[in-house]
Automatic annotation (TrEMBL):
Belongs to the UPF0145 family. SUPFAM superfamilies: YbjQ-like. The lineage of its organism: Bacteria, Pseudomonadati, Gemmatimonadota, Gemmatimonadia, Gemmatimonadales. Transmembrane segments: none annotated. Coiled coil: none annotated. This is UPF0145 protein rosag_22930. HAMAP family: UPF0145 (MF_00338). It comes from Roseisolibacter agri.
């Protein structure tokens, strides 16, 4: 598989993801290892200028908030694709991390453990 995932569509639904290490109503039958989604983004010049104007008025800087949310979502979706490729049908222990690689360029990583689960009897 390529080291870069181009598709952002996975069949793992969001309700099969968790920041905890279990999924209520399911039993983990196989742990498939760590999966991750990495996105490196830079701010555009126009976005930086627009955000600079927003800082003059105080409050939420919506341009940066939207960029951060889109970046986290892309990292999350990429992680789900990796989990599905590994044979998982759920991801547990999900975490995010971000690092400024250089001024104005940030790496966001979303990672967790891909697992296979089976539904518990009701």
């Amino acid at each position: 598989m390529s080291s870069i995932v181009h598709s952002q569509a996975a069949d793992i639904p969001y309700n099969m993801t968790s920041t905890t290490f279990d999924l209520p109503g399911y039993r983990i039958v196989a742990s498939l290892g760590v999966v991750r989604g990495v996105v490196v983004r830079s701010r555009s010049l126009l976005g930086t200028i627009g955000a600079g104007v927003q800082t003059l008025f105080g409050g939420n800087i919506s341009l940066f908030t939207e960029l951060a949310e889109r970046t986290r979502q892309q990292a999350f979706d990429t992680m789900l694709v990796q989990a599905e490729t590994a044979g998982g049908d759920a991801v547990i222990g999900i975490r995010y991390d971000a690092t400024e690689v250089m001024q104005g360029v940030t790496e966001v990583i979303c990672y967790g453990t891909a697992v296979r689960v089976e539904e518990l009897p009701r």
